[in-house]
Amino acid sequence: MAHRWCGNNDAAQGKCYGCCVNRQHRRIQEDLMEVTGLSRSVFVKSHIRKLLTDNGIGYTKTECSVTLTLISRKQSQITNLKEKLAQKDKYIAKLTEENQALKNECELLRGRLFLLMQRQSLL
Questions:
Q1: CA within 13 Å, CB half, 46
Q2: 63 φψ region: left (φ > 0), alpha (ψ -120 to 50), beta (else)
Q3: How far apart are CA 70 and CA 32, in angstroms?
Q4: Which of 117, 118, 99, 96 lies closest to 107, judged by CA?
Q5: 18 and which of 31, 64, 85, 99 could share a cystine (Cβ 3.0–4.6 Å)?
Q6: 105 alpha carbon, distance to own chain's centre
Q7: Domains of the chain: which residue ranges?
Q8: Each residue of 43-96: pLDDT tens digit?
Q9: Measured distance CA(12)–CA(18) in Å, rounded
Q10: CA–CA distance, 92 with 99 (Å, rounded to integer)
Q11: What's the burial of 19, exposed, middle or buried (CB within 10 Å: 0-12/13-18/19+)?
Q12: pTM of this prediction?
């Protein structure tokens, strides 16, 4: 469920999810410091983090891969769509040039046909 400030945008919801995770991380950290009486610097040490993780205490901060993968997926989709758009624009330009060339050729052939018809009517 999205918070009221997230909106319907996937990127905004992913960012909000990351904010919620960070907020929960801070609360757990504060609770651990209160209960144990240890300072914040103790919980930063890698062996302490590993110990907490191994014992199922959700202290360790995880990167929000959902947000990063969602953003990178959307960026790659945008890039692919831009490439397709550029290809379609080139194709349209090519067809426009061919169309103009065929119109010019058609106009020349009409002129020749007109001249041939005039010659035939004179004979």
A1: 0
A2: beta
A3: 32
A4: 99
A5: 64
A6: 45
A7: 1-62, 80-123
A8: 778 887 787 777 777 654 554 555 667 788 888 999 999 999 999 999 999 999
A9: 10
A10: 10
A11: middle
A12: 0.42
